[in-house]
């Protein structure tokens, strides 16, 4: 079932008069049927939104982690720890390109929310890195 069908089913559950063989259904049967149809329709509509919210939360956390790594990378440079700075530089570069591909993959509307989530995670990561050190 698609989202349009689910939305139609939800609205139809409120508007349409349920009949059985030309006669009105008894009130308890009508209520059970409407409740079941509406519940199924609501679950279908929320399913797509929940996936998007989870994806945005994951991207936010990824932005936070990447920025924490960038802060650690900067501290290794300041301490002249060459090997650790070089390793973190490679990890950060790979992570940024992987997340860039994942963020921009999909529709333009989703990509904007993904970019905002990644940027928000980066901002929180910077804030935490400065508070911790």
Quick recap:
It is built from 4 helices and 2 strands. It is mainly alpha-helical and 133 residues long.
Describe it for me?
By secondary structure, the protein is mostly helical. The protein has one domain. It is 85% helix and 3% strand. The chain has a two-stranded antiparallel ribbon. A hairpin with a 2-residue loop joins strand 1 and strand 2 (23-24). It is elongated, with a radius of gyration of 25 Å. Residues 5-11 and 13-31 have low confidence and may be disordered.
Topology of this structure?
Elements: H1 3-15, E1 19-20, E2 23-24, H2 27-78, H3 82-104, H4 108-132
Antiparallel strand pairs: 1-2
Helix pairs in contact: 1-2, 2-3, 2-4
Number of strands: 2
Termini Cα gap:
51 Å
- What is Rg? 25 Å
**Largest sheet, if any?**
2 strands, antiparallel
The whole-number mean of residue pLDDT values reads 74
**Approximately what portion of the residues adopt beta-strand conformation?**
under 5%
Q: Strand order across the biggest sheet?
A: 1-2
Instruction: Give the helices and strands as they follow along the chain.
Output: HEEHHH
> Can you count the helices?
4
- The tally of domains stands at 1
The outline comes out as: elongated
The secondary structure category is: mainly alpha
Low-confidence stretches: 5-11, 13-31
Q: Helix fraction?
A: over 70%
């Amino acid at each position: 079932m698609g989202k349009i069908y689910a939305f139609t089913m939800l609205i139809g559950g409120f508007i349409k008069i349920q009949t059985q063989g030309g006669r009105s259904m008894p009130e308890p049967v009508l209520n059970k049927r409407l409740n079941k149809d509406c519940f199924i329709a609501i679950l279908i509509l929320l399913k797509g939104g929940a996936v998007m919210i989870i994806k945005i939360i994951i991207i936010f956390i990824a932005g936070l982690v990447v920025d924490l790594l960038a802060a650690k990378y900067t501290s290794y440079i300041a301490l002249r720890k060459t090997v650790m700075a070089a390793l973190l530089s490679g990890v950060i570069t790979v992570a940024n390109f992987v997340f860039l591909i994942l963020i921009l993959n999909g529709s333009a509307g989703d990509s904007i929310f993904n970019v905002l989530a990644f940027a928000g995670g980066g901002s929180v990561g910077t804030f935490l890195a400065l508070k911790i050190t």
